[in-house]
Design brief:
Number of domains: 2
CATH architecture of the largest domain: 2-Layer Sandwich
Strand content: 25-35%
Radius of gyration: 18 Å
Structural class: alpha+beta
Order of helices and strands: EEEHEEHEHHEEHEEEE
Strand order of the largest sheet: 1-2-5-4-3-6
Shape: globular
Length: about 210
């Protein structure tokens, strides 16, 4: 069994004071929307105090009811999260839509999770780097584990745009959503999509 106590820590979400991204041990939960959780965490979800929980590879996004502040309940949620994760046996892979050991039930939602992760990445250092160079990257779609983005501003005509995507955007997204297959780009001039495949298991998925 996983130890009863291990490190989790919260990260505020830009522009959304009701949501906190809780960093948890990688691989603890499958990626998707949480429908059921053990203990207090699950009771709060069922009762509406928690409006939504979405899990990524190494984090759990928790959105509180608008009437509840993180300042008031943050410590309680942290303890409830540790308790809920402690009942997931190590090495027991989650089974999306069919329930997990310990009372977790997570519905697969790959498009939602990939978009959530990608937007958060673009709100952070990757997006700041692009803006500093006069560019803008917008998400077009996240279907089939493929992130399609639009390059605007200086990025649309920059010879190094592919380097930015490969070394910064794709790397950052893949760390948090390992199932991503590739990143495609569409420029504003309508010249059509181009793409650079992500390497998985030593093979280029675009080949």
């Amino acid at each position: 069994m996983r130890p009863a106590a291990f490190a989790v820590h919260p990260e505020p979400v830009t522009g959304d004071p009701s949501t906190m991204r809780w960093v948890i041990p990688a691989g603890s939960l499958d990626c998707g929307t949480v429908q059921q959780a053990p203990g207090l965490l699950g009771r709060w979800l069922a009762g509406g105090r928690i409006r939504r929980m979405v899990s990524e590879h190494a984090a759990l996004w928790i959105t509180l009811d608008a009437a509840i502040s993180w300042r008031a309940v943050g410590a309680e949620v942290r303890d409830a999260l540790i308790d809920a994760l402690s009942v997931v046996p190590q090495g027991a892979g989650p089974s999306a839509d069919s329930g997990m050991p310990g009372g977790w039930r997570i519905a697969a939602a790959p498009e939602q999770v990939l978009e959530l992760v990608s937007r958060d990445v673009l709100d952070g250092p990757v997006g700041e780097f692009v803006l500093a160079h006069g560019g803008v990257i917008r998400i077009v779609s996240t279907a089939d584990d493929v992130l399609t983005v639009n390059l605007d501003g200086a990025c649309g005509h920059c010879a190094f745009a592919g380097v930015t995507l490969n070394e910064r955007l794709k790397t950052a997204v893949r760390q948090r959503y390992p199932r991503i297959r590739e990143v495609r780009t569409e420029d504003c001039a309508g010249s059509g999509p181009s793409w650079w495949g992500l390497r998985r298991s030593g093979r280029n998925s675009a080949s």
